[in-house]
């Protein structure tokens, strides 16, 4: 029974992708949805996952991350953020099914040393 169910889901997903409906069946979820960075040594990591139309997690092969504002914050291939200067930035997480924007606010606080 399990094999038939997964086979049916795979066929439906393949047909949906071929017909251009994949974006309706699968949703990209990125956490956290917004990020604040206050320290230069703070490097939060974005986590991405795909869920199907029933909310079940689907294996994710390739998600790419891109900073629309690399002068403010950079993002690695694994979603690790690195602040460069104060400001507001947007990170785009993208798969073949969907893309999500994550807002990042950088307010670096300098620490006085004695």
Topology:
Layout: H1 2-18, H2 22-25, E1 26-31, E2 34-37, E3 47-52, E4 57-58, E5 64-67, E6 73-75, E7 81-83, E8 87-94, E9 99-106
Parallel strand pairs: 2-9
Antiparallel strand pairs: 1-3, 3-4, 5-8, 6-7, 8-9
What is the straight-line distance between the termini? 69 Å
Q: Percent range for helical residues?
A: 10-25%
User: Structural class, from helix and strand content?
Assistant: alpha+beta
Gyration radius (Cα, Å) is 18 Å
DSSP strand content:
35-45%
Please provide the ordered H/E string of secondary-structure elements: HHEEEEEEEEE
Which strand order does the major sheet show?
A: 2-9-8-5
Arithmetic mean pLDDT: 83
CATH architecture: Sandwich
Describe what you observe in this structure.
This protein has two helices and nine strands. By secondary structure, the chain is an alpha+beta fold. The chain has a single domain (26-106), classed as Immunoglobulins (Immunoglobulin-like). The chain has a four-stranded mixed β-sheet, with no helix packed on it. Strands 1-3-4 form a three-stranded antiparallel β-sheet. The longest helix has 17 residues, at 2-18. The chain is elongated.
